[in-house]
Amino acid sequence: MPPLPLATSPEVAEALAAGRPVVALESTIISHGLPRPGNLEAAREFEQILRDAEVTPATVAVLDGELKAGLTDAELQRIAAEDVPKLSVRDLPVALARGGSGATTVAATSWIADRAGIRVFATGGLGGVHRGAAETFDESADLTVLGQVPITVVSAGVKSILDIAATLERLETLGVIVLGYGTDDFPSFWLTASGHALDWSVHDAFGVAAVMGSRDALGQSSGIVVANPLPVERQLDPQVHDAALDQALQEASAAGLSGKEVTPFLLQRIVELTDGESLRVNLDIARNNIAVAARIARAWAEVA
Ligand code: PSU
Ligand code: MN
């Protein structure tokens, strides 16, 4: 087999070799999930939250035909400024074959982080089963990859642009462990709760690390979704949320959008329709998830 074209940054490689905590971050949130130019500032801030917690950040992307775990500031700038494609797992071989670059989704980030030996990953919200999937079959590869890769991903559940009940059913089928972090209710990203009850919850980072350890001991290789809600006083106003969501969904369907364009379109329209309020909440969620991922990575480094 040819060597894996994976460049782990020196900082990340050293931390991993020493058993110090590392948290992976995805790059599609930078390239497609947040508007420019604030996206670069956000990407830097996400890394800084980890550094402040003495955790090494590993932002994941594909640059010039190489998988990257850990980016320099110049590389972060490229992801934030260039029109790079959004890459899921199946896109990685094509991007590599062409010497191309791109931002990685939760699916691709999970896969690359696992290859790099990283166990904890923070994102905003996972992809999932889209509304109308019974006809369109539109289900994010985030779910299938999490069924295959033993990574722990901290997420504020999934967005209400998706079919939450169907997403939870698919996570069950795929064998993905879902743990509420201080909650019994699966969060719906901008909103603290979705009304969908979870089977399991943990109270702190050591509770997550214990499940990671027992999953490993069983030889299971599925991922863990840590569902971390925003406190209710920081959620998006539910009325503002519902109105913006209805309109954005109608527009996406009227425009005949499908496939990988759907998520970025809806996210951007919802920012516009909420006068930027959804963006403020989006950033707050990412920070909140990164802070929890830092605690989990530290707990894991302690017990592993
Ligand atoms: N949800 C968000 N923001 C995002 C995404 C999802 O709140 O930026 C991105 C993530 O990178 C996720 C991807 O992995 O969209 C899912 O896209 P798709 O549904 O096309 O698989
Ligand atoms: Mn899709």
UniProtKB/TrEMBL annotation:
Cofactor entry: Mn(2+)
Instruction: Give the record's keywords alphabetically.
Output: Glycosidase, Hydrolase, Lyase, Manganese, Metal-binding
Query: Biological process GO annotation list?
Result: nucleobase catabolic process
Its recorded name reads Pseudouridine-5'-phosphate glycosidase
- Tell me the classification of the organism that encodes this protein: Bacteria, Bacillati, Actinomycetota, Actinomycetes, Propionibacteriales
Pfam families xref list? Indigoidine_A
What residues does Mn(2+) bind to? 138
Q: Which reaction does it catalyse?
A: D-ribose 5-phosphate + uracil = psi-UMP + H2O
- Give the family, as the similarity comment puts it: Belongs to the pseudouridine-5'-phosphate glycosidase family.
Q: Which residues form the signal peptide?
A: none
What's the name of its gene?
Answer: psuG
The protein's assembly and partners: Homotrimer.
User: What top-level class of enzyme does the UniProt entry assign?
Assistant: lyase
Q: Example GO molecular function term?
A: pseudouridylate synthase activity
Q: Which domain of life is it from?
A: Bacteria
Q: Key word DNA-binding present in the record? A: no
Q: Where is the active site?
A: 26 (proton donor), 159 (nucleophile)
- Please give an example of a GO cellular component term from this record: cytoplasm
Q: What is its EC number?
A: 4.2.1.70
Record-linked InterPro entries: Indigdn_synthA-like, PsuG
